[in-house]
Amino acid sequence: MTDQPPPHHSPYGQPPGAPPPPGYGQEAPGYEQGAPGYGQGAPGYGQQYDPRWGYGPPGVPYGPGTQTTGEDTTWAMMSYLGTLIIGFLAPLIIYFVKRRESAFTRFHAAQALNYQLTILIHLLAVLAVCAPLAIITENPVFLVPLIPVYLIDGFGQWVFLILGAVKAGKGAYYRFPTFFCFRMVR
């Protein structure tokens, strides 16, 4: 009995742990090390990236794009503050007029419009549940659940619209929490 494994007869090449066949890792005949055109960059293009380190230097990171102008921040603020005066029409008009001119204004107008549509969905959902019950039973007490929903949405409207207007005035992007603002318009 020996301490060595039995001989390996594999149809797929060398047994595990065996040295590579002769000539493995050597260059093919006719190709010399440092052939012209490889390894050195063209003159005038600066230092080339060392190929030993992967695929190349890291690219330029994405930035916020162009700086916002005073007009952009004003229109973005008006998309929030206008909802307190004329409702969803202010962000809707600003969105359609300014959406191709400024990504910043489009973002904030869409954000304000999405918020108004979300409030409408909240109120219509509660109304769809409460109104039929009030009509069928001829008892308006079933409309009472509308009161807290209306108060919460009204309070949230003031808080989020003022917060959005302040962020827009500072030139910052601000996204409302998803529960309070479903992203329908982008």
UniProtKB/TrEMBL annotation:
Q: Which domain of life is it from?
A: Bacteria
Question: In what ranges is there compositional bias, type Low complexity?
Answer: 24-35
* Keyword tags: Membrane, Transmembrane, Transmembrane helix
Q: Which chain regions cross the lipid bilayer?
A: 77-97, 117-136, 142-166
Subcellular location as annotated = Membrane
InterPro entries, per the entry: MamF_MmsF (IPR019109)
Kindly give the Pfam families that the UniProt entry links to this protein: MamF_MmsF
Q: How does it sit in the membrane?
A: Multi-pass membrane protein
Q: Where is the composition biased (Pro residues)?
A: 1-23
Protein name, UniProt field: Tic20 family protein
Which species is the source of this protein? Actinomadura viridis
